[in-house]
From TrEMBL:
SUPFAM superfamilies per record: FMN-linked oxidoreductases
Phylogenetic lineage: Bacteria, Bacillati, Bacillota, Bacilli, Bacillales
Pfam families membership: Peptidase_U32
Protein's name in the database: Peptidase, U32 family large subunit
PANTHER family per the UniProt record, alphabetical: PEPTIDASE U32 FAMILY, U32 FAMILY PEPTIDASE
Annotated InterPro entries: Peptidase_U32 (IPR001539), RNA/ubiquinone_mod_enzymes (IPR051454)
């Protein structure tokens, strides 16, 4: 069975996606969620969960950041609130966050989401043994690899199919960083690898406030 999952950046968008046929919404909040179009407050997350459940749909809340000490200290209260709201699952990739969730003994399933690290059925099986209900596959995998992976697993594997999400939703000012570090006066402030001679390439710039950069080959058509 295929489940259609869509990210939502607001309550209005969440309702529109549910009405359009999404089976599950993927949302999250700062500082625990990555690759989100817009972080939501706890109040907004609770509202989205209520409205999704009223339609018989589900909600996964992103907690897939690499947790530092401060985030880990804040995580138990956050997870407890998500469980109280009735979240259907959380997406987690940090082992420390997974340990925290298990120690809380909440009725809150987790999906293993560690970005580029999830590249084999055996790795997913390891985290299933740790309690994961499924996993998000790395975007770099081919369709052939994904089919081979799923054949070895009983748990579902999530696959992102809508383009270079890490770039167009990350909010990272790539151009600003590039020019800051490549033009730095001190070599210690420059990028680790600066290519002095580059081949001619066709590049498009999105008209976003952060000034992201795209190769024409990476833009969805």
């Amino acid at each position: 069975m295929i489940e259609l999952i869509a990210t939502a950046e607001s309550l209005e968008q969440a309702e529109a996606l549910l009405d359009a046929g999404a089976d599950r919404l993927y949302i999250g909040g700062h500082p625990f969620g990555l690759r989100l179009p817009q972080p939501l407050s706890l109040e907004q997350i609770e509202d989205v969960i209520k409205r999704a459940h009223q339609r018989g749909k589900k909600v996964t809340v992103s907690c897939n950041a690499l947790m530092h000490n401060q985030q880990i200290a804040q995580l138990p209260d956050y997870l407890q609130k998500l469980a109280d709201f009735g979240a259907d699952a959380v997406a987690i990739g940090d082992p420390g966050a997974i340990l925290t969730l298990k120690e809380l003994k909440l009725e809150l399933p987790f999906v293993y989401d560690a970005g580029t690290l999830v590249t084999s059925a055996e790795q997913i099986a390891f985290w299933v043994n740790q309690g994961a209900s499924g996993a998000v596959a790395a975007r770099e995998l081919t369709l052939k690899e994904l089919f081979a992976m799923q054949k070895k697993l009983k748990q579902p594997v999530e696959v992102q199919v809508y383009g270079p999400t890490c770039i167009h939703q990350s909010g990272r000012p790539l151009l600003t960083n590039y020019f800051t570090y490549t033009h730095a006066e001190s070599p210690d402030q420059q990028l680790f690898c600066v290519i002095r001679k580059m081949r001619t390439a066709s590049i498009r710039f999105s008209r976003m406030k952060t000034g992201h950069i795209f190769s024409r080959l990476k833009i969805c058509r």
